[in-house]
């Protein structure tokens, strides 16, 4: 079973690329939160609904670097959405006892918003 923060973060991005979060769902804490540029989510249902929506609009996802310790993982990646040029994104995933408790994401959304206008 995938239990280290780094392996859970890798699973998160693998599921995103496959646009199927079935394997990720068991690794979400009942009180997990997501905070990002396009919104916030509380709990696994909202978390997965938001991530599924992002995945549906994703054209490309290229992980550049992942750094982790005992509870936290920072993943730096390029995200292509809606025909916009790839945008650099930082994703901070916090894991406790093998469960994602929080994900915080930041990036400059201007290219993505301009492409969707």
Topology overview:
Elements: H1 5-18, E1 28-36, E2 39-42, H2 43-56, E3 58-68, E4 72-81, E5 87-96, E6 99-107, H3 110-116
Parallel strand pairs: 1-6
Antiparallel strand pairs: 1-2, 3-4, 4-5, 5-6
Domain SnoaL-like: 12-102
InterPro entries: NTF2-like_dom_sf (IPR032710), SnoaL-like (IPR037401)
Protein name: SnoaL-like domain-containing protein
Description:
It holds the Pfam family SnoaL_2. InterPro entries: NTF2-like_dom_sf, SnoaL-like. This is SnoaL-like domain-containing protein. With 117 residues, the protein is of the alpha+beta class. It has a single domain (5-116), classed as Roll (Nuclear Transport Factor 2, Chain: A), CATH 3.10.450. 30% of the residues lie in helices and 45% in strands. The chain contains three helices and six strands; from the N terminus they run αββαββββα. It has helices at residues 5-18, 43-56, 110-116; strands at 28-36, 39-42, 58-68, 72-81, 87-96, 99-107. Strands 2-1-6-5-4-3 form a six-stranded mixed beta sheet, with helices on both faces. A hairpin with a 3-residue loop joins strand 3 (58-68) and strand 4. The radius of gyration is 13 Å and the shape is globular. The termini are far apart.
């Amino acid at each position: 079973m995938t239990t280290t923060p780094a392996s859970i973060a890798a699973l998160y991005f693998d599921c995103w690329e496959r646009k199927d979060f079935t394997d990720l769902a068991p690794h979400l804490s009942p009180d997990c939160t997501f905070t990002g540029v396009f919104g916030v989510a509380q709990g696994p249902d909202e978390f997965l609904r938001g991530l599924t929506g992002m995945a549906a609009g994703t054209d490309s996802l290229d992980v550049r670097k992942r750094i982790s310790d005992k509870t936290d993982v920072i993943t730096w990646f390029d995200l292509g959405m809606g025909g916009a040029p790839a945008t650099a994104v930082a994703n901070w995933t916090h894991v406790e006892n093998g469960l994602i408790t929080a994900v915080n994401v930041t990036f400059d959304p201007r290219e993505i918003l301009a492409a969707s206008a």
